[in-house]
Each structure stands twice: as C-alpha cells, then as structure tokens.
Design goal:
Layout: E1 10-12, E2 15-16, H1 30-51, E3 53-58, H2 60-73, H3 103-109, E4 118-122, H4 138-141, H5 167-175
Antiparallel strand pairs: 1-2, 3-4
C-alpha cells in the first residue's frame, strides 16, 4: 500500500522521499522538482541538527486533511479523464496519485516545511533543551558580536582592537 501523507516528501517517521506519489511529476521536468525537494530536506536537517530534533512524523489530522483536499481537487482536473495511466495506478478509473495543484503551486508550497503538520521528538524531554547554557557559540568563537547591524568589510569576525591603537585617544580623553 502506498503511504498517504501531507507532504510529497514524508511518508513515515523520519524517512524522506523525493519521488513519492504526490509530486507534480506529470507537470514537466523532474530535475527542478528534485532540486526543490533537496533544498526542502536541507531545511528539515538544519532544524533537526540545530534544535535537537531526533525524529518527526506527520500528524494524522494533517494526513487526513491532505487526502480530503486531494480527493476534492483532482477530479476537476485533466488527470481524471478516462485513460489508463501510471498516476492512476495503471487503471482507467484509479485514484489519482498526483499533487493537487500546478507545478508552480507545488514549488511555492514546498519552499518551507510546515512544522505544524508534524509530531516532533527531541533529544531531551524539554523541546527547548537545545537552548543549552544560554550563550551563543559566536560569543566565544571570535565572531562579530554585532553582526545584526551589518558585517564589517563583509567579514563575520570581531575586529582586533589592540590597546596601542587607542593610546592617543585614551591620553587625550584623560587630559580633557
């Protein structure tokens, strides 16, 4: 049986697929779809590695809503015409296994994971355990601590400010 899921890339606990039944594979070239899903997966992996997520799986309510939407939308499309096709499981009247929308709709929808559709498991019992000791790594690595204002000469390093560069300034300040 083909897994049913809210996203064309997730079918079970932390297993990602770039070619499941619900992609827009009948809409054109396969390569841009694969590239988009690779970027989507990288966002997932980034969240997992930076926030201590160990696994995730689609919420059943999200799966059910996706199925309902797909079953309401697809019969209105050319994909439902009476022809035998792989996206109808090799039958004339099979359930259409296609993204419920256009290729562009798929690209826009898949720009970012919809975390609200997933159950997440964490490395600790507290979802905010990844906050750690309350300090950012950049506070100890020599990176620029005011990067949010803008990078100094395009670099993300705290500038070296030796005391001798300020000797004249410090002397003038003391005599004023």
């Amino acid at each position: 049986m083909t897994p049913i899921c809210p996203s064309p890339c997730l079918t079970s606990r932390t297993i990602l697929f770039s070619t499941d039944p619900y992609g827009p594979y009948g809409h054109g070239s396969f390569l841009p779809i694969t590239e988009l899903l690779a970027k989507h997966f990288i966002k997932i992996f980034d969240k997992m590695s930076s926030e201590g997520v160990t696994s995730f799986d689609p919420k059943q309510e999200a799966v059910n809503d996706f199925i309902q939407h797909r079953r309401q939308f697809l019969p209105r499309t050319a994909w439902s015409s009476p022809c035998r096709s792989w996206f109808k499981q090799g039958t004339v009247d099979g359930e259409i296994m296609m993204w419920p929308g256009s290729r562009i709709h798929f690209f826009e929808t898949m720009q970012n994971p919809r975390w609200e559709d997933y159950n997440l498991s964490y490395t600790t019992t507290n979802r905010f355990g990844y906050f750690g000791n309350g300090f950012a790594a950049r506070e100890f690595s020599g990176q620029d601590l005011s990067w949010y204002i803008g990078m100094l000469e395009g670099g993300d390093l705290q500038p070296e400010l030796p005391d001798e560069d300020f000797a004249e300034f410090m002397v003038q300040s003391q005599t004023d």
